[in-house]
Amino acid sequence: MERILIVDDEKNYLVVLQALLADSGYEVLTAQTGPQALALAAEEEPDLVITDMRMPQMTGLDLIGRLKTRFSEMPMIVMTAYGTVENAVEAMKAGATDYISKPFENTELLLTVQKALKVRRLLFQNRLLKEELKGYGEIIGDSMAMRQVYALIDKVAATKATVLLTGESGTGKELIARAIHVRSPRSDEPFVAVNCMALTETLLESELFGHEKGAFTGATSRRKGRFELAHGGTLFLDEVGEMSPSLQVKLLRVLQERSFERVGGNQALSVDVRIVAATNRDLTQAVEAGQFREDLFYRLNVVRIDVPPLVQRREDLPALVAHFVNKYAAEVGRPAPKVDKQAMELIYSHSWPGNVRELENAIERAVILAGESITPGDLPLEIRPGQAAAATELPQDMSLNEAVDDLERRMILRALSEAGGVAAHAAEALGLTKSNLAYKLKKYGIG
Fold it and tell me: Which residue ranges form the domains of the chain, and what is each CATH number?
Protein backbone atom coordinates (compact mmCIF):
# COMPACT_ATOMS: atom_id res chain seq x y z
CA MET A 1 0.00 0.00 0.00
CA GLU A 2 1.48 3.33 -1.07
CA ARG A 3 1.67 6.02 1.60
CA ILE A 4 0.64 9.64 0.98
CA LEU A 5 1.31 12.61 3.27
CA ILE A 6 -1.21 15.49 3.01
CA VAL A 7 -0.20 18.90 4.38
CA ASP A 8 -2.81 21.65 4.73
CA ASP A 9 -3.61 24.15 7.47
CA GLU A 10 -7.34 23.83 6.65
CA LYS A 11 -8.65 20.84 8.59
CA ASN A 12 -11.69 20.39 6.33
CA TYR A 13 -9.48 19.76 3.32
CA LEU A 14 -7.45 17.23 5.30
CA VAL A 15 -10.60 15.30 6.24
CA VAL A 16 -11.95 15.27 2.68
CA LEU A 17 -8.64 14.30 1.08
CA GLN A 18 -7.93 11.63 3.69
CA ALA A 19 -11.29 9.98 3.05
CA LEU A 20 -10.96 10.20 -0.74
CA LEU A 21 -7.47 8.73 -0.87
CA ALA A 22 -8.13 6.06 1.78
CA ASP A 23 -11.17 4.89 -0.20
CA SER A 24 -8.88 4.62 -3.24
CA GLY A 25 -6.58 2.20 -1.43
CA TYR A 26 -3.83 4.52 -0.16
CA GLU A 27 -2.44 4.81 3.35
CA VAL A 28 -2.84 8.46 4.38
CA LEU A 29 -0.87 10.64 6.82
CA THR A 30 -1.86 14.23 7.63
CA ALA A 31 -0.10 17.34 8.93
CA GLN A 32 -1.31 20.94 9.38
CA THR A 33 2.11 22.66 9.35
CA GLY A 34 5.39 22.40 7.51
CA PRO A 35 7.49 21.48 10.58
CA GLN A 36 4.98 18.77 11.50
CA ALA A 37 5.15 17.45 7.93
CA LEU A 38 8.97 17.35 8.01
CA ALA A 39 8.93 15.30 11.20
CA LEU A 40 6.35 12.88 9.78
CA ALA A 41 8.25 12.51 6.49
CA ALA A 42 11.49 11.71 8.34
CA GLU A 43 9.74 9.05 10.41
CA GLU A 44 7.38 7.49 7.85
CA GLU A 45 9.07 8.20 4.45
CA PRO A 46 5.87 8.60 2.41
CA ASP A 47 5.71 7.74 -1.29
CA LEU A 48 4.02 11.06 -2.17
CA VAL A 49 3.46 14.45 -0.55
CA ILE A 50 0.47 16.68 -1.34
CA THR A 51 0.90 20.13 0.17
CA ASP A 52 -0.98 23.41 0.22
CA MET A 53 0.86 26.42 -1.17
CA ARG A 54 0.10 28.99 1.54
CA MET A 55 0.40 27.91 5.16
CA PRO A 56 1.58 29.56 8.40
CA GLN A 57 5.11 28.91 9.72
CA MET A 58 6.31 27.41 6.41
CA THR A 59 5.01 27.75 2.83
CA GLY A 60 4.42 24.77 0.59
CA LEU A 61 7.39 25.83 -1.57
CA ASP A 62 9.70 25.99 1.44
CA LEU A 63 8.47 22.57 2.55
CA ILE A 64 9.19 21.11 -0.88
CA GLY A 65 12.68 22.58 -0.86
CA ARG A 66 13.43 21.05 2.54
CA LEU A 67 12.03 17.65 1.57
CA LYS A 68 13.91 17.54 -1.75
CA THR A 69 17.26 17.85 0.01
CA ARG A 70 16.57 14.57 1.83
CA PHE A 71 14.17 12.71 -0.49
CA SER A 72 15.28 13.54 -4.01
CA GLU A 73 12.98 11.01 -5.72
CA MET A 74 9.87 11.75 -3.66
CA PRO A 75 7.10 13.18 -5.90
CA MET A 76 5.25 16.24 -4.58
CA ILE A 77 1.98 17.84 -5.64
CA VAL A 78 1.20 21.46 -4.78
CA MET A 79 -2.42 22.58 -4.37
CA THR A 80 -3.60 26.13 -3.91
CA ALA A 81 -6.60 28.39 -4.32
CA TYR A 82 -4.32 30.92 -5.97
CA GLY A 83 -4.09 29.23 -9.35
CA THR A 84 -1.85 31.28 -11.58
CA VAL A 85 0.79 30.37 -14.14
CA GLU A 86 3.39 32.11 -12.00
CA ASN A 87 2.52 29.92 -9.01
CA ALA A 88 2.79 26.77 -11.15
CA VAL A 89 6.21 27.76 -12.53
CA GLU A 90 7.43 28.64 -9.04
CA ALA A 91 6.24 25.29 -7.68
CA MET A 92 7.92 23.34 -10.48
CA LYS A 93 11.19 25.21 -9.96
CA ALA A 94 11.05 24.30 -6.27
CA GLY A 95 10.81 20.63 -7.21
CA ALA A 96 7.09 19.92 -7.39
CA THR A 97 6.04 17.02 -9.62
CA ASP A 98 2.64 18.53 -10.43
CA TYR A 99 0.25 21.35 -9.58
CA ILE A 100 -3.49 21.41 -8.92
CA SER A 101 -5.83 24.31 -8.18
CA LYS A 102 -8.48 24.47 -5.46
CA PRO A 103 -11.31 23.67 -5.77
CA PHE A 104 -10.63 20.50 -7.75
CA GLU A 105 -12.61 17.54 -8.99
CA ASN A 106 -12.00 14.28 -7.16
CA THR A 107 -11.28 12.52 -10.44
CA GLU A 108 -8.71 15.19 -11.36
CA LEU A 109 -6.90 14.80 -8.05
CA LEU A 110 -6.84 10.99 -8.23
CA LEU A 111 -5.45 11.05 -11.77
CA THR A 112 -2.75 13.51 -10.69
CA VAL A 113 -1.85 11.27 -7.74
CA GLN A 114 -1.70 8.16 -9.95
CA LYS A 115 0.55 9.92 -12.45
CA ALA A 116 2.93 11.16 -9.74
CA LEU A 117 3.18 7.74 -8.12
CA LYS A 118 3.80 6.11 -11.51
CA VAL A 119 6.75 8.46 -12.05
CA ARG A 120 8.10 7.50 -8.64
CA ARG A 121 7.82 3.79 -9.43
CA LEU A 122 9.66 4.28 -12.72
CA LEU A 123 12.44 6.25 -10.99
CA PHE A 124 12.74 3.54 -8.36
CA GLN A 125 12.89 0.75 -10.97
CA ASN A 126 15.46 2.71 -12.97
CA ARG A 127 17.64 3.18 -9.91
CA LEU A 128 17.44 -0.53 -9.08
CA LEU A 129 18.39 -1.41 -12.64
CA LYS A 130 21.38 0.95 -12.57
CA GLU A 131 22.53 -0.52 -9.27
CA GLU A 132 22.07 -4.03 -10.63
CA LEU A 133 24.14 -3.29 -13.73
CA LYS A 134 26.70 -1.11 -11.94
CA GLY A 135 30.26 -2.12 -12.53
CA TYR A 136 29.81 -3.94 -15.84
CA GLY A 137 31.80 -1.31 -17.73
CA GLU A 138 30.82 -0.89 -21.37
CA ILE A 139 28.69 -4.02 -21.54
CA ILE A 140 25.30 -3.04 -22.94
CA GLY A 141 22.21 -5.21 -22.64
CA ASP A 142 19.35 -6.14 -20.35
CA SER A 143 18.14 -9.30 -22.11
CA MET A 144 17.60 -12.49 -20.15
CA ALA A 145 20.72 -13.95 -21.77
CA MET A 146 22.85 -11.05 -20.53
CA ARG A 147 21.25 -11.05 -17.08
CA GLN A 148 22.43 -14.64 -16.73
CA VAL A 149 25.94 -13.49 -17.64
CA TYR A 150 25.75 -10.66 -15.07
CA ALA A 151 24.64 -13.13 -12.39
CA LEU A 152 27.68 -15.34 -13.07
CA ILE A 153 30.00 -12.32 -13.05
CA ASP A 154 28.65 -11.36 -9.62
CA LYS A 155 29.13 -14.87 -8.24
CA VAL A 156 32.66 -15.39 -9.52
CA ALA A 157 34.16 -11.89 -9.25
CA ALA A 158 34.86 -11.99 -5.51
CA THR A 159 36.60 -15.38 -5.72
CA LYS A 160 40.05 -16.39 -6.96
CA ALA A 161 38.62 -18.97 -9.36
CA THR A 162 39.92 -19.21 -12.90
CA VAL A 163 37.23 -18.32 -15.44
CA LEU A 164 36.78 -19.58 -18.99
CA LEU A 165 34.74 -17.38 -21.32
CA THR A 166 33.36 -19.15 -24.38
CA GLY A 167 31.53 -17.67 -27.34
CA GLU A 168 31.83 -16.47 -30.90
CA SER A 169 34.24 -13.73 -32.00
CA GLY A 170 32.99 -10.22 -31.35
CA THR A 171 30.63 -11.07 -28.49
CA GLY A 172 32.52 -8.92 -25.97
CA LYS A 173 34.46 -11.51 -23.99
CA GLU A 174 37.18 -9.01 -23.07
CA LEU A 175 34.55 -6.61 -21.69
CA ILE A 176 33.25 -9.41 -19.49
CA ALA A 177 36.78 -10.24 -18.34
CA ARG A 178 37.26 -6.58 -17.41
CA ALA A 179 33.93 -6.55 -15.55
CA ILE A 180 35.04 -9.57 -13.50
CA HIS A 181 38.28 -7.76 -12.66
CA VAL A 182 36.58 -4.46 -11.77
CA ARG A 183 34.13 -6.18 -9.41
CA SER A 184 36.85 -8.25 -7.75
CA PRO A 185 39.12 -7.49 -4.75
CA ARG A 186 41.89 -7.08 -7.35
CA SER A 187 40.23 -4.09 -9.00
CA ASP A 188 42.98 -1.68 -7.90
CA GLU A 189 45.66 -3.91 -9.42
CA PRO A 190 46.52 -4.30 -13.15
CA PHE A 191 44.27 -5.86 -15.77
CA VAL A 192 46.53 -7.20 -18.53
CA ALA A 193 45.30 -8.72 -21.79
CA VAL A 194 47.07 -10.74 -24.47
CA ASN A 195 45.70 -12.27 -27.68
CA CYS A 196 47.18 -15.75 -28.04
CA MET A 197 46.23 -15.98 -31.72
CA ALA A 198 47.82 -12.73 -32.82
CA LEU A 199 51.43 -13.76 -32.07
CA THR A 200 53.73 -16.52 -33.23
CA GLU A 201 54.70 -19.18 -30.67
CA THR A 202 58.11 -17.58 -29.97
CA LEU A 203 56.73 -14.08 -29.61
CA LEU A 204 53.82 -15.25 -27.44
CA GLU A 205 56.18 -17.07 -25.06
CA SER A 206 58.25 -13.91 -24.65
CA GLU A 207 55.10 -11.80 -24.33
CA LEU A 208 53.73 -14.00 -21.55
CA PHE A 209 56.86 -14.78 -19.56
CA GLY A 210 59.31 -12.04 -20.54
CA HIS A 211 62.92 -12.64 -21.51
CA GLU A 212 66.45 -12.10 -20.33
CA LYS A 213 69.00 -10.03 -22.20
CA GLY A 214 70.53 -12.09 -25.01
CA ALA A 215 67.85 -14.81 -24.84
CA PHE A 216 67.41 -14.56 -28.61
CA THR A 217 68.40 -12.33 -31.51
CA GLY A 218 67.11 -8.83 -30.82
CA ALA A 219 66.76 -9.34 -27.04
CA THR A 220 68.99 -6.41 -26.16
CA SER A 221 67.65 -6.00 -22.64
CA ARG A 222 65.64 -7.81 -19.97
CA ARG A 223 61.88 -7.52 -20.51
CA LYS A 224 59.05 -8.30 -18.13
CA GLY A 225 56.23 -10.48 -19.49
CA ARG A 226 52.48 -10.17 -19.04
CA PHE A 227 52.47 -12.47 -16.01
CA GLU A 228 54.85 -10.17 -14.15
CA LEU A 229 52.99 -7.07 -15.26
CA ALA A 230 49.69 -8.54 -14.04
CA HIS A 231 51.08 -9.53 -10.60
CA GLY A 232 48.36 -8.97 -7.99
CA GLY A 233 45.74 -8.42 -10.68
CA THR A 234 44.10 -10.24 -13.58
CA LEU A 235 45.61 -11.71 -16.75
CA PHE A 236 43.20 -12.13 -19.66
CA LEU A 237 44.26 -14.80 -22.17
CA ASP A 238 42.17 -14.24 -25.28
CA GLU A 239 41.90 -17.04 -27.86
CA VAL A 240 43.66 -19.43 -25.49
CA GLY A 241 42.52 -22.33 -27.68
CA GLU A 242 45.07 -21.28 -30.32
CA MET A 243 48.04 -21.72 -27.99
CA SER A 244 50.69 -24.22 -29.17
CA PRO A 245 51.14 -27.52 -27.30
CA SER A 246 54.53 -26.48 -25.86
CA LEU A 247 53.09 -23.23 -24.49
CA GLN A 248 50.12 -25.11 -23.09
CA VAL A 249 52.58 -27.10 -20.96
CA LYS A 250 54.22 -23.92 -19.66
CA LEU A 251 50.87 -22.29 -18.93
CA LEU A 252 49.76 -25.39 -17.03
CA ARG A 253 52.89 -25.20 -14.89
CA VAL A 254 52.19 -21.57 -13.98
CA LEU A 255 48.63 -22.43 -13.01
CA GLN A 256 49.83 -25.34 -10.86
CA GLU A 257 52.94 -23.88 -9.25
CA ARG A 258 52.31 -20.13 -9.53
CA SER A 259 55.86 -19.64 -10.79
CA PHE A 260 57.74 -19.44 -14.10
CA GLU A 261 61.09 -18.49 -15.68
CA ARG A 262 61.70 -15.78 -18.22
CA VAL A 263 62.81 -16.94 -21.66
CA GLY A 264 66.57 -17.47 -21.43
CA GLY A 265 66.51 -17.38 -17.64
CA ASN A 266 66.75 -19.98 -14.88
CA GLN A 267 65.37 -18.08 -11.91
CA ALA A 268 61.87 -19.12 -10.80
CA LEU A 269 59.64 -16.10 -10.33
CA SER A 270 56.57 -16.37 -8.12
CA VAL A 271 53.39 -14.68 -9.33
CA ASP A 272 49.93 -13.97 -7.93
CA VAL A 273 47.64 -13.64 -10.93
CA ARG A 274 43.97 -14.41 -11.47
CA ILE A 275 43.46 -15.99 -14.90
CA VAL A 276 40.47 -15.27 -17.12
CA ALA A 277 40.74 -17.11 -20.44
CA ALA A 278 38.56 -16.87 -23.54
CA THR A 279 38.05 -18.93 -26.65
CA ASN A 280 35.71 -19.16 -29.63
CA ARG A 281 36.60 -22.84 -30.09
CA ASP A 282 34.91 -25.86 -28.56
CA LEU A 283 37.75 -26.91 -26.27
CA THR A 284 36.03 -30.20 -25.47
CA GLN A 285 36.30 -31.18 -29.13
CA ALA A 286 39.86 -29.82 -29.25
CA VAL A 287 40.77 -32.08 -26.31
CA GLU A 288 39.21 -35.11 -28.02
CA ALA A 289 41.14 -34.28 -31.20
CA GLY A 290 44.42 -34.05 -29.26
CA GLN A 291 44.79 -30.34 -30.04
CA PHE A 292 44.41 -29.10 -26.46
CA ARG A 293 45.68 -30.59 -23.22
CA GLU A 294 42.93 -32.12 -21.10
CA ASP A 295 44.63 -31.22 -17.81
CA LEU A 296 44.98 -27.58 -18.90
CA PHE A 297 41.35 -27.52 -20.00
CA TYR A 298 40.20 -28.58 -16.53
CA ARG A 299 42.50 -26.01 -14.94
CA LEU A 300 40.95 -23.25 -17.05
CA ASN A 301 37.37 -24.51 -16.96
CA VAL A 302 36.81 -23.96 -13.23
CA VAL A 303 33.95 -21.50 -13.85
CA ARG A 304 32.63 -21.28 -17.38
CA ILE A 305 30.63 -18.35 -18.74
CA ASP A 306 29.03 -18.84 -22.15
CA VAL A 307 28.73 -15.45 -23.83
CA PRO A 308 25.64 -15.38 -26.09
CA PRO A 309 25.93 -14.33 -29.74
CA LEU A 310 24.06 -11.20 -30.74
CA VAL A 311 21.47 -13.23 -32.66
CA GLN A 312 20.35 -14.73 -29.33
CA ARG A 313 19.85 -11.34 -27.68
CA ARG A 314 18.08 -9.28 -30.33
CA GLU A 315 16.11 -7.43 -27.64
CA ASP A 316 19.39 -5.66 -26.77
CA LEU A 317 19.72 -4.23 -30.29
CA PRO A 318 17.94 -0.88 -29.60
CA ALA A 319 20.17 -0.15 -26.60
CA LEU A 320 23.32 -1.20 -28.44
CA VAL A 321 22.44 0.83 -31.53
CA ALA A 322 21.63 3.91 -29.43
CA HIS A 323 24.90 3.54 -27.52
CA PHE A 324 27.02 3.30 -30.66
CA VAL A 325 25.14 6.09 -32.45
CA ASN A 326 25.74 8.45 -29.51
CA LYS A 327 29.36 7.32 -29.16
CA TYR A 328 30.36 7.92 -32.78
CA ALA A 329 28.25 11.05 -33.21
CA ALA A 330 30.16 12.53 -30.26
CA GLU A 331 33.47 11.48 -31.82
CA VAL A 332 32.72 13.31 -35.08
CA GLY A 333 31.20 16.28 -33.25
CA ARG A 334 27.66 16.17 -34.61
CA PRO A 335 24.14 15.60 -33.22
CA ALA A 336 23.23 11.93 -32.97
CA PRO A 337 21.16 10.96 -36.03
CA LYS A 338 17.95 9.00 -35.64
CA VAL A 339 17.69 5.48 -37.05
CA ASP A 340 14.75 5.27 -39.43
CA LYS A 341 12.29 2.39 -39.33
CA GLN A 342 13.58 0.61 -42.45
CA ALA A 343 17.20 0.73 -41.26
CA MET A 344 16.19 -0.65 -37.87
CA GLU A 345 14.27 -3.46 -39.54
CA LEU A 346 17.40 -4.41 -41.50
CA ILE A 347 19.44 -4.35 -38.29
CA TYR A 348 16.92 -6.67 -36.64
CA SER A 349 16.83 -9.09 -39.59
CA HIS A 350 20.62 -9.39 -40.07
CA SER A 351 22.29 -12.50 -38.59
CA TRP A 352 25.35 -10.56 -37.27
CA PRO A 353 28.04 -13.25 -37.69
CA GLY A 354 30.55 -10.74 -36.34
CA ASN A 355 28.30 -10.07 -33.33
CA VAL A 356 28.52 -6.81 -31.33
CA ARG A 357 31.83 -5.84 -32.93
CA GLU A 358 30.28 -6.06 -36.39
CA LEU A 359 27.28 -4.03 -35.21
CA GLU A 360 29.57 -1.34 -33.78
CA ASN A 361 31.52 -1.13 -37.02
CA ALA A 362 28.28 -0.89 -39.06
CA ILE A 363 26.90 1.90 -36.87
CA GLU A 364 30.18 3.83 -36.96
CA ARG A 365 30.05 3.74 -40.77
CA ALA A 366 26.37 4.72 -40.78
CA VAL A 367 26.91 7.69 -38.46
CA ILE A 368 29.67 9.02 -40.72
CA LEU A 369 27.56 8.67 -43.88
CA ALA A 370 24.13 9.62 -42.53
CA GLY A 371 22.31 12.93 -42.68
CA GLU A 372 19.73 13.68 -40.01
CA SER A 373 18.67 10.02 -40.02
CA ILE A 374 20.39 6.70 -40.62
CA THR A 375 18.73 5.05 -43.63
CA PRO A 376 19.29 1.63 -45.26
CA GLY A 377 21.76 3.18 -47.71
CA ASP A 378 24.05 4.15 -44.83
CA LEU A 379 24.41 0.54 -43.68
CA PRO A 380 27.06 -1.88 -45.04
CA LEU A 381 26.10 -3.91 -48.12
CA GLU A 382 26.01 -7.24 -46.30
CA ILE A 383 23.16 -5.97 -44.11
CA ARG A 384 21.05 -5.10 -47.18
CA PRO A 385 19.54 -8.26 -48.74
CA GLY A 386 20.10 -8.68 -52.46
CA GLN A 387 22.83 -6.05 -52.64
CA ALA A 388 25.80 -7.74 -50.96
CA ALA A 389 26.47 -10.04 -53.90
CA ALA A 390 26.32 -7.27 -56.48
CA ALA A 391 29.95 -6.13 -56.51
CA THR A 392 29.21 -3.83 -59.41
CA GLU A 393 26.82 -1.81 -57.26
CA LEU A 394 29.60 -0.07 -55.35
CA PRO A 395 29.31 3.68 -54.82
CA GLN A 396 30.89 5.62 -57.67
CA ASP A 397 33.10 7.59 -55.30
CA MET A 398 34.64 4.42 -53.75
CA SER A 399 38.33 4.02 -54.47
CA LEU A 400 39.90 0.72 -55.57
CA ASN A 401 41.45 0.20 -52.14
CA GLU A 402 38.09 0.83 -50.47
CA ALA A 403 36.38 -1.64 -52.81
CA VAL A 404 39.01 -4.31 -52.10
CA ASP A 405 38.65 -3.74 -48.34
CA ASP A 406 34.87 -3.98 -48.64
CA LEU A 407 35.07 -7.30 -50.51
CA GLU A 408 37.69 -8.70 -48.12
CA ARG A 409 35.62 -7.78 -45.10
CA ARG A 410 32.52 -9.46 -46.55
CA MET A 411 34.47 -12.63 -47.35
CA ILE A 412 35.83 -12.76 -43.78
CA LEU A 413 32.35 -12.32 -42.34
CA ARG A 414 31.00 -15.08 -44.57
CA ALA A 415 33.86 -17.42 -43.60
CA LEU A 416 33.26 -16.72 -39.91
CA SER A 417 29.56 -17.41 -40.32
CA GLU A 418 30.20 -20.71 -42.12
CA ALA A 419 32.79 -21.68 -39.50
CA GLY A 420 30.38 -21.05 -36.64
CA GLY A 421 32.46 -18.15 -35.38
CA VAL A 422 35.63 -20.24 -34.94
CA ALA A 423 38.44 -18.00 -36.18
CA ALA A 424 40.91 -20.85 -36.75
CA HIS A 425 38.51 -22.63 -39.11
CA ALA A 426 37.69 -19.39 -40.90
CA ALA A 427 41.40 -18.69 -41.39
CA GLU A 428 41.89 -22.13 -42.92
CA ALA A 429 38.95 -21.65 -45.28
CA LEU A 430 40.31 -18.26 -46.39
CA GLY A 431 43.88 -19.53 -46.84
CA LEU A 432 45.20 -17.19 -44.14
CA THR A 433 47.41 -17.78 -41.14
CA LYS A 434 45.75 -17.35 -37.77
CA SER A 435 47.85 -14.28 -37.00
CA ASN A 436 47.02 -12.72 -40.39
CA LEU A 437 43.31 -13.26 -39.81
CA ALA A 438 43.63 -11.78 -36.32
CA TYR A 439 45.17 -8.65 -37.86
CA LYS A 440 42.35 -8.36 -40.40
CA LEU A 441 39.66 -8.92 -37.76
CA LYS A 442 41.11 -6.03 -35.83
CA LYS A 443 41.47 -3.90 -38.97
CA TYR A 444 37.82 -4.30 -39.90
CA GLY A 445 36.51 -4.20 -36.34
CA ILE A 446 35.08 -7.71 -36.52
CA GLY A 447 36.71 -9.72 -33.77
Answer: 3-132 (3.40.50.2300), 144-308 (3.40.50.300), 311-443 (1.10.8.60)
